[in-house]
Amino acid sequence: ALVAVKLDAAGFKKYRCDRPIPLGVNLNSLTKVLKCAKDDDICTIKASDDVDVLNLTYEAKSSDRIAEYD
Length: 70
Description:
The protein is of the alpha+beta class. Helix content is about 10%, strand content about 25%. It has a single domain, classed as DNA Polymerase III, subunit A, domain 2 (DNA Polymerase III, Chain A, domain 2, Roll), CATH 3.10.150.10.
């Protein structure tokens, strides 16, 4: 199945997107990774131009815990 997702700036406290970029992401894998976040985690989502990799980083506000997924 093909799904189009648009992440608007209004849904984020801090948002930067230099240009629209299409990414192929396995939705089952993405769902599992998103469920790893805690309610108060800061989530950073990055994608670089040269590779088809989506990077998600979760940082806990109350501890030194950092989780990174590619």
